[in-house]
Amino acid sequence: MSTNTAMIEKYRNNFLKEVEANVEEGDWVKMCMQCGVCSGSCPLGKHWEHPPQEIFMMIRAGKRDEVLSSDSMWMCTSCYNCIVRCPRELPITHIMHGLAHYAKRLGLAPKNQPTMKFAQLFWDNLSKKGRVNELKLGISLYFMNGFGEGIKTSLKMKDIGLGMLKAKRMSVAEAFGGHSVKDLSGFHKMLKKAQELEDARLTQHG
Amino acid sequence: MTEVVATNETILVVGGGISGMTAALEAAEAGKKVVLVEKRPYLGGRVTQLYKYFPKLCFPTCGLEINQRRAKMNPNLTILTMAEVTDLSGEAGAYTATVKLSPRYVNDNCTACGDCADAVETEVDDEYNYGLTKRKVAYLPHVMAYPQQYVLDPAIIGSEDAEKAKAACKYDAIDLDMQEREISFPCGAVIWATGWQPYDAAKIQPYGYDRYANVISSVEFERMADPKGPTGGKLVRPSDGKEAKNIAFIQCAGSRDRNHLLHCSRICCMASLKQSTYVTEAWGDDADVSIYYIDIRAIDRFEDFYHNVKSNPNVRFIKSKVASITENKENGNPVLNGVDTEGYNRYANEHDLVVLAVGMQPSVDKDSFPVDIVVNREGFIEQADGNGGVFAAGSASDALDVNRAVQHATGAALRAIQVVNRVAGAEG
Hints:
The complex is a heterodimer. By secondary structure, chain A is mainly α. Chain A has twelve helices and no strands. Chain A has helices at residues 3-10, 15-22, 37-41, 52-60, 64-68, 81-85, 92-105, 114-129, 134-142, 147-156, 158-166, 184-205. Chain A starts with a helix and ends with a helix. By secondary structure, chain B is α/β, with parallel strands linked by helices. The mean pLDDT of chain B is 95.
């Protein structure tokens, strides 16, 4: 049984409870009073199929598939405008990231969602050396959507790249291994431990 | 100068608005000695600044006249205006109150003829109209002011205007040598009726009250509707004086918001519904009212009023708390941005004028009470044993409309009477 079906079994007909138990800051969802200030304050609001206020109502209405497979919460850029203005101080930004993370964990996030792809690239890059390798991250980002588009983007950005090399903001040497944190094995141990703790938490809750 | 004769059987009422007046009159008419202390130069408080009451849409001047007459007739009542309680010590049945009396520079000879106002030239913002107009520095606060006496603004003392006012007075009513005084007197119980103040709309940053001329507060709109108000009762835009027919009301402006006031201010829904009738009455079929709300809280008998307004095709209800206001630079129209809750439609609506239904907050800051008193987290006075013989009346105790404030004040009078009756019983 996949995690997804297990969750459906466990929280049958009560998606709000599922969100409360599994999504970061999910227990805030029920506090929403549907005023709409978050949706109206979001600078990217018009690109959301379902603005935050609607997402909260959909959660309460049990629209599990629509919410978890939605592209909307991936639109959040963490500007925090909604959090500052929310009359009930809901941590909306965190809830959106929590929902996105949960959807990804269950394998329900929309395929080829660019924010999700970038987040994964960023994490893979960072977790290798404990430092972001900007050269590699940049290149992998250019080639995220295929070889052809990667070449096109690289050519478009070449002046900026050369400028950065000249100003010593980027180094070609990064292509070979790249710099790392001082205690690299300690860093990897730390990540491993964190993963263990998270896995233990999931077995307990999920 | 006013002399205060008081004993431990005297009731002190702090604040001469509708609640303080009611409590003072009820106690005085029940035979108790009462001293009423009011900070403003006149009684009636914020009720004097209202154009109409809800739900009957009658004029507050009517009830005010009755109360002023009751006050005038009652020998048990001593009224101190331009006075503030600065200290209260002792315990229930035996308090000593200290009151600061600010000089009015006008004595009881005043006949309210107005010659002094004609003589002076300097003008300052008129606080009675929330600064929408100017007033002379020798002034009658409003036409029905009680006591019916002029006031000299302290700013002109020592100036040429002060001498002009004095010279113009035919009744020797202007006394430029009046000084601030402090008096102390005993009292047995205290009714605290310091009332409310509108929440500072400028603090709601996304609404741009301090940036856009055509975004005003509900208390300012109330003055505007008054035929004796700053625009002679005409509903016009502050920016260009153009007739305002397309008017938006934003509910919960500062209320029910953890960034501003925690509580529901209770009056604002009814106030906006009432004010929407000013618009439909003024412009008839040309009126275009939009009320942006989270939910309309017109409880019990007010429900009828709500349904009447709702049945008017010229009044629209939009279930949405507006996220931000911007301005159309070409015509000065405020643009309301948000997403509604019924359909999640994104809107950017232009209006001639926007009224923010601002919340009610206690007029005394919770950290600056001159007496030891229990207040809740919103700053309203709690009913608590620790308050001894001090009782809150009206909107010092909670966000209340006039009707409930008056009922509450009557109850407060009864509590205070019980305390002074105990004193009388003990003293035989």
